[in-house]
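Researcher: I need the complex structure. Ligand is nicotinamide-adenine-dinucleotide. Inputs:
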Amino acid sequence: MARRLEGKVALITGAGSGIGRESSLLFAAEGAAVVVVDRDDDGGQQTVEAVKASGGRAVFVHADVSRTEDCAGMVATAEEEFGNLHVLFNNAGVMDGRDDDAVSTDETIWDLTMQVNAKGVFLGCKHGIPALRRAGGGSIINTASFVASLGAATPQIAYTASKGAVLALTRELAVVHAREKIRVNALCPGPLRTELLMKVLDTNQKKQRRLVHIPMGRFGTAREIAQAALFLASDESSFVTGTNFLVDGGITAAYVTPE
Ligand code: NAD
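Model: Output:
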């Protein structure tokens, strides 16, 4: 059977951990050459080693997605190393434990969160879209979150606003670039058992408070999000653009969850 990303080059930000690492492994197993981008060098290198150990192709690029020169560099590396760029997965994100309601949250936390989660996606697109044009089209996947669609019970005002920005900019990009054969979709994970969330939900009580809202009664895994990203990256989703693709265990569908 043909592999689902055969011949494609994919750049994944935040690929040193969680969703980005699982997506790197899955995309490579499906035939893509992967540009592993992270500001954490150890995590990024470990992802590259894991891809190579399972017979895939990958290269690491150190980049902070909130810096324009770093984003230019990661895209240049994709084209230099592998000739083209077909899939741009803007996935890097931060959630600060001090992010709270509007009254308590410090301005610095707002700025840091917006710099990475919102501006990072903008800069990825700013530098990535010209490369996708040179390749004759492609797929952009922007990681947002279910909190862009729901008011969170646990306040995190900067994070929520930053993910709302990702949804809005995804829709506009999808419309503007549709005739260039560039598809743009937002991927909205529900609560996951990854480093990012478990660091914040650091007590059993906090975990249970979140779990009561999920009809499936469990946290998702990074692998389950990677599988959805694979669909959006591949030509199987050739008529899908501008969507808010929820992969959330039913959390946004629930009014009351079953006992
Ligand atoms: P993670 O913390 O496991 O991985 C995030 C990676 O991004 C890390 O390797 C980190 O070093 C990297 N990163 C952070 N800031 C960066 C920057 N400025 N430049 C480059 N790399 C940077 O988290 P994850 O759960 O895999 O999250 C991935 C994405 O999914 C994020 O955008 C997050 O907001 C989103 N998300 C996560 C959940 C969840 O429950 N975990 C839910 C919804 C959305």
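Model: Summary of the prediction. The pocket of nicotinamide-adenine-dinucleotide is lined by residues 13-14, 16-20, 38-40, 43, 63-66, 91-95, 116, 120, 143, 145, 189, 191-192, 194-197, 222 (CB under 6 Å).
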